[in-house]
Amino acid sequence: MIRIGLIQFPGSNCERETALAVKRAGMEPIEFLWNEDLQKLHTLDGYILVGGFSYEDRSRAGIIAALDPVIKEIKAQSATGKPVLGICNGAQILVESGMVPGLNQADMTIALAENKRVSEGKILGKGFYNAWVNMRLNNHGQPNAFTRHLTPQDIINLPVAHGEGRFVMPEALFKMITEQDLNLFQYCDSQGEIVENFPINPNGSMGNIAAIINKAGNVLSMMPHPERTMSGDPIFASMRDYIVEKKNINIQSTQVSIPSHKPVSSLYISPTSRGLTAGSSELARSMEPAVKPWEVGSKRIITQKDSNIHECVVKLIITDNHALTVEKTLRKLGFPVTVSRFKHWEISCDSAETVQEAKKSGVLYCERKEREILVSELGLDHGLTYLVRAKDDLPGQQALQTLKTHYSLSQIQKITAGILWQFKSDKEDIHKLMNDILSTNILRNQYAHACYHYS
């Protein structure tokens, strides 16, 4: 019987419904925990990275699991033609690992950013969203391991349940993905029409993308949950038939090695050195420096000229599991570091009194488990600190909207949210470690976040 590995990490929680879907397709589900002997993977015919919240989505969804050795082995197995399906959190892991879209250029990766539900310029919501949606194949879907029993006329009604499911990427890369039909499934209405507005598009994903497949056609990153409904059974049946008739599928060559992340000292992609195709120069121009110096408003030190810019740095007074998980992951990778994490708010307001009211509101932080600290308390001279911000800054926009609407703090002009990550090491020169640490992308995805050196 065909044996499908159900890959699970701490926090995975969809193994039961995935196992039932695999059984309905006439295959045998084999549970595989992240810390098992990797040789067991060699005996399996395919793999499903199940949904859930691996490592509680610490740092961001999927990144900690993507750095686990089991993913390196699954990548090697996928290069032999074995199918790999990532569902929800599994999809996030595949994206963070670079297995999707699999265009054989290390920098041509994508991001699954925080959900964005916006109507007429108003933020209706962000973060976790749970609902039933419709999706269908795009009109020109390429031959692959997962859709041989589906056509663009088949509407699949299935649930979504995620907080970071919005596919984002540079416009040039989006163009390449759509031209190569890698945007395999799209959100649609009940008639199959592609409608960009919420709730048809539940998370603001570019081009209504619900799932992206790699160029080879055997690795699929899907945010909705086909395993939770029999409407999704054709996907698993196709996976079965693909394995049985694998020699009839045209599997293109793909690289086995883990993508080599560019050091932060190399700021831009070089199209010529990467050997990219048409549209690559446009993609290179869309890239930003990996790490930039940071300034408050127009200056790092607040002066009378920019006294309307106020910083608010917030420290968690209970155990910070996000920082601990990043620290443990980096130590497993060979970096002897201590990691701290802080919330960072930048508030544009002419009234210091209004800023204090905003801080007391509970919108920016919860006094029961957090407290504001001075920048001087960060100890910037004893380590390296980086400020990471979401490029579309939904947390900042929503905080501003809440403070204006519910607290009548109309004098606030702008709020920008971010996270400060601080790194120290007692064993090695932290300056010599940081390029390699940042190159793991554990702090940010370059397409969803901006990263600044905070000093």
Number of folding domains?
Answer: 2
Contiguous low-pLDDT stretches (5 residues minimum) are 249-289, 296-305
CATH homologous superfamily label of the largest domain? Class I glutamine amidotransferase (GATase) domain
Give the spatial strand order of the biggest sheet. Answer: 2-1-3-4-13-12-11-8-9
CATH topology of the largest domain: Rossmann fold
CA-based shape: globular
Mean model confidence by pLDDT: 87
Kindly state the percentage of residues in helix: 10-25%
Cα-atom Rg, whole angstroms?
Answer: 23 Å
| SS strand fraction | 25-35%
The class by helix and strand makeup works out as: alpha+beta
Which keywords apply here?
alpha+beta; ligase; 455 residues; purine biosynthesis; Rossmann fold; hydrolase; 7-stranded mixed β-sheet; ATP-binding; 9-stranded mixed β-sheet; nucleotide-binding
Report on the architecture of this protein.
Helices cover 24% and strands 25% of the residues. With 455 residues, the chain is of the alpha+beta class. It folds into two domains: 3-248, Rossmann fold (3-Layer(aba) Sandwich); 292-454, no CATH class. The strands form four sheets. Strands 2-1-3-4-13-12-11-8-9 form a nine-stranded mixed β-sheet, sandwiched between helices. A seven-stranded mixed β-sheet has the order 14-20-18-19-16-15-17. A hairpin with a 5-residue loop joins strand 12 (209-213) and strand 13 (219-222). The longest helix is centred in the C-terminal third of the chain and has 13 residues, at 394-406. The model is unreliable at 249-289 and 296-305 (pLDDT under 50). Pfam families: GATase_5.
